[in-house]
Specification:
Layout lengths: L33 H17 L5 H50 L26 E9 L4 E10 L4 E10 L8
Antiparallel strand pairs: 1-2, 2-3
């Protein structure tokens, strides 16, 4: 029994027209049989021509398609990196704004207007955004409510992160 995928054993063949000849060749042609030698040469010649490779237009089209795919992939990769950088910067800015909000929440309501107009919290985490500018503005609204607006500008003022904190005069402590 033959194993799966194994080649069948080679069989020596004789062409009926050359039955009188005793010399056999491995490819099935008779030794000295001119007819079979020509047929074999013709078959080999056809095989060479059918296995010659790709034509120049086929290669050019393949290269064009490959160029389009690589260019598109590269553009998508660059855009993804740009958006990832923007997201990282935005996360840093809003984390710093949240830290500053905690500082501003602990200031007495009556002292909010006199507090400094830049961030009181540590801005070391904003180092990747340099140069940046931080601004804090306090505005009085209806009655006992003040709006503390905190903002960070970076990339020469092109990017902005802003957080507004509403403080109400409850007459109690500065924690709530």
């Amino acid at each position: 029994m033959r194993a799966v995928g194994a080649r069948p054993p080679f069989v020596w063949r004789r062409h009926p027209a050359c039955a009188l000849s005793k010399g056999l060749q491995k490819d099935g042609a008779q030794a000295g049989c001119l007819r079979h030698t020509r047929e074999i040469d013709h078959t080999i010649s056809l095989m060479r021509h059918s296995q010659r490779g790709f034509s120049l237009p086929e290669l050019l089209v393949a290269m064009l398609i490959l160029t389009l795919i690589i260019t598109t992939s590269l553009a998508a990769f660059v855009e993804r990196n740009r958006r990832l950088q923007q997201a990282s910067e935005t996360i840093l800015a809003y984390q710093s704004l949240a830290n500053e909000a905690e500082y501003r929440r602990r200031i007495n309501f009556s002292d909010l207007d006199a507090a400094q107009q830049t961030f009181m919290s540590d801005t070391a985490m904003l180092a990747p955004l340099r140069p940046f500018n931080t601004v804090v503005a306090v505005t009085q609204t209806n009655g006992g409510v003040k709006v503390v607006s905190m903002s960070i500008r970076w990339k020469n003022g092109q990017r902005l992160a802003r957080l507004n904190l509403l403080r109400a005069n409850t007459g109690g402590s500065n924690l709530w």
